[in-house]
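Support request from a user on the community tier.

User writes: "When I paste my structure tokens into the form, the page sometimes reloads and wipes my input. The last time it worked, I copied everything first. Here is what I submitted, just in case something in the input itself triggers the reload:"
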């Protein structure tokens, strides 16, 4: 019989996976790689169908290891040339200069038609490839590696029902259960999952602080505001996004399908653990709590929406920092509520350089929520969308993001499509 402990462990195994670059273009590349492999030769024509949220998150971000290429067509071409779909969200890691040259040649000679999906699914990618009289089709829905259909010509090779989102079972998480798991999970489970997250994400963030990526948000924070632990926590997370959004080839470990969220939920906790001299075990448990709080918040929102996912991760980071300082359930719950009262409502207008600045703002909200709680200062139920109970407050935020901001999402996508014409 599967226990609650086993279910949470399985959620972490599903969530904390390595990915290279922004996950939406990589998901498009992954679908294209499978389609080309199914066709079993290089296609001479491609049709792509993506939901508005995929278009939003692929439009402006650099596809990693491509020499600075951006957009849906670049993601498709990179996946077809790279192949190796078994590598999933790391499939572009093996591209070399020869591969980058073949991508550019493929883009020059191969028509790639990009269309908006007619599906109601907010996360929807379909890639159809052609050569001669043959074709192959792959569809990914709901999550970045969730392949739901593969066809060769008209023959269905693989198909599964995806009507129920995997987020549904993640919504059974609660903050008390997350804290209990973080405190009691064996280190032999946490180290391979959370330990890898800490090590990968710290490495790309340090790269972001070393070199000039994008708008240099992380470096600007250090140059402008100094080296306090509070500022370093924001700067390291932002620097990771600077690098990731602007073509750095290092992998990150994602949370809720997002590398930015994977970095935001972990790196501020890493900085505070270093500052406090916390042992590795304490750091692992604090980041685990941060991850689970982020997953709980995102479960009610969904993978993609008009609500910036970094906010959820910044709240998770605040909870993790509170735990490092000895916070119990009550203090952690109030840190979460304080942070949600401050920052809920930052809009997501796609993946790009400014994500790093939004991450800094989200981390600021999480840390201010913690600092308020440390001093006995709290926002209370009845203040705006806050309830007296942390779980009800989280549910309210989920409804706000998933339902209330639906029109905002449509308008953002409409504006972005207009800018393409």
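"...and here is what came back when it finally went through:"
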């Amino acid at each position: 019989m599967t226990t609650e402990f086993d279910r949470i462990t399985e959620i972490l195994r599903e969530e904390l996976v390595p990915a290279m670059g922004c996950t939406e273009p990589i998901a498009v590349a992954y679908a294209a790689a499978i389609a080309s492999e199914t066709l079993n030769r290089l296609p001479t024509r491609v049709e792509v169908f993506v939901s508005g949220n995929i278009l939003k998150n692929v439009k402006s971000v650099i596809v990693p290891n491509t020499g600075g290429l951006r957009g849906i067509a670049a993601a498709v071409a990179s996946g077809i040339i790279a192949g190796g779909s078994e590598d999933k969200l790391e499939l572009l890691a093996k591209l070399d200069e020869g591969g980058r040259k073949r991508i550019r040649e493929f883009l020059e000679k191969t028509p790639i038609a990009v269309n908006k999906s007619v599906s109601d699914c907010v996360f929807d990618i379909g890639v159809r490839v052609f050569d001669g009289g043959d074709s192959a089709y792959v569809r990914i829905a709901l999550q970045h590696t969730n392949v739901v259909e593969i066809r060769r010509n008209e023959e269905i090779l693989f198909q599964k029902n995806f009507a129920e989102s995997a987020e549904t079972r993640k919504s059974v998480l609660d903050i008390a259960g997350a804290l209990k798991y973080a405190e009691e999970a064996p280190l032999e489970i946490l180290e391979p999952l959370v330990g890898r997250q800490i090590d990968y994400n710290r490495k790309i963030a340090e790269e972001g602080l070393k070199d000039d990526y994008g708008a240099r948000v992380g470096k600007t924070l250090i140059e402008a505001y100094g080296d306090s632990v509070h500022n370093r926590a924001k700067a390291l997370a932002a620097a990771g996004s600077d690098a990731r959004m602007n073509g750095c080839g290092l992998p990150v470990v994602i949370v809720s399908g997002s590398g930015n969220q994977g970095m935001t939920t972990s790196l501020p906790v890493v900085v505070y653990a270093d500052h406090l001299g916390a042992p590795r075990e304490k750091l692992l448990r604090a980041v685990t709590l941060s991850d689970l709080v982020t997953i709980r918040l995102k479960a009610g929102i969904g993978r993609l929406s008009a609500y910036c996912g970094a906010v959820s991760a910044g709240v998770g980071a605040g909870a993790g920092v509170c735990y490092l300082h000895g916070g119990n359930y009550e203090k952690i719950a109030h840190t979460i509520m304080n942070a949600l009262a401050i920052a809920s409502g930052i809009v997501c207008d796609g993946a790009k350089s400014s994500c790093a600045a939004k991450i800094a703002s989200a981390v600021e909200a999480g840390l201010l929520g913690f600092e308020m709680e440390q001093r006995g200062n709290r926002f209370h139920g009845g203040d705006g969308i806050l309830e007296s109970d942390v779980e009800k407050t989280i549910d309210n935020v989920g409804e706000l993001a998933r339902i209330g901001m639906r029109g905002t999402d449509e308008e953002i996508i409409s504006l972005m499509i207009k800018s393409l014409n």
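Agent notes: The reload is a front-end session timeout and is unrelated to the input. Residues 167-420 form a domain with the 2-methylcitrate dehydratase PrpD fold (CATH 1.10.4100.10). Strands lie at 18-20, 45-50, 112-116, 124-131, 134-141, 147-152, 155-159, 251-253. Escalated to web team.
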